[in-house]
Amino acid sequence: MIFNSLATKTISALRPAVRSIHSTASQNAKVAVLGAAGGIGQPLSLLCKLSPEVDELSCYDIVGTPGVAADLSHIPSKSSTLGRLPSPVKWPMGPNDGLKEALEGSDVVVIPAGVPRKPGMTRDDLFNTNASIVQTLVEGCAKFCPDAMIAIISNPVNSTVPIAAEVLKKHGVYNPKKLAGVTTLDVCRANTFVGNHMGWDPKDVDVTVIGGHAGITILPLFSRVDGAKFTDDELEAITVRTQFGGDEVVAAKAGAGSATLSMAYAGYLFTENVLKALRGEEITQCAFVESNLTEAQYFASPVKFGKNGVEEILPLGELSAYEKQWFDKMMPELKKQIQKGVDFVKK
Ligand SMILES: NC(=O)C1=CN([C@@H]2O[C@H](COP(=O)(O)OP(=O)(O)OC[C@H]3O[C@@H](n4cnc5c(N)ncnc54)[C@H](O)[C@@H]3O)[C@@H](O)[C@H]2O)C=CC1
Ligand SMILES: O=C([O-])CC(=O)C(=O)O
Q: Which residues are in the Lactate/malate dehydrogenase N-terminal domain (predicted)?
């Protein structure tokens, strides 16, 4: 476990030397992936294993993680790899020693555990199964790594993030700076679609995507992309495609799940950025966090991350008339999904 120490200041002051400094044991950056044997979890774990920002990679799932971790451990990158399952009750260890070992000392916990959609389902249809999975895993975080940054991928993100917050509150360890829903895939999609439309390299595009992570609660602000030009019909098409990009993949996979590879990439980008920020770099990226920008208690928008996690939620600025229409449509839906998550834990 690293950060919040004199060593952190030393690291940011000596930025070019970071690689050699942070590989020492006392400054290890530990990332835990919960749901690591799944469609997202495996490629996400692979990308984390390759990341120079990660020193310890911890893979946790209810199945398969010893194999995933053993496999990854043969890759010649500097990070160590741990694979853990929930263990049977073993006195005096208690029932959760697998999760405990997976989580202890973690700086970032990424959670892609839970069931994915099939064609015809909304993300909200996953609530009944995934709400309790997220609840249980975040209870583990509250007990075993209360200071870690928790990044929620499991859907419905608009409800699972509030669930996580309520669980952490119940345990008296909620820190809004250390909890975020991962909406990076929406930004990746918007960048790709604008790049393709304009004939630009998508890596040079950075679209701001606000709101939440489900259908019309996803609002890409294409009016802010310098030089991008759309007819009204094109703008409508690219907006709706971004909002329903997940459905496009679900339909193409035809019953075999939802986005996994692009999500693993997006989850890795988010995690690496958070690690860089915890080490002292200032990073701005969109994330779904507790926010007072709007009437919704949680809202995705550009957020400045630093060594304490979320350092500042940037002002939203003016929306175009077209974006304002979508914003007004989104708000009741987003607030309802947030409330559903809050009520699940409070009931
Ligand atoms: N935030 C986003 O942008 C996106 C979110 N997702 C969501 O991510 C989630 C995972 O998707 P996939 O990886 O495709 O599903 P998957 O079914 O391939 O993998 C899920 C993994 O979670 C594990 N799991 C289930 N219960 C668990 C528990 N209690 N503890 C630990 N692990 C547990 C399963 O064993 C499985 O290995 C879904 O809810 C999906 O909707 C998917 C794509 C994008
Ligand atoms: O669509 C889904 O169910 C998975 C997801 O969140 C996405 O791909 O954006």
A: 30-181
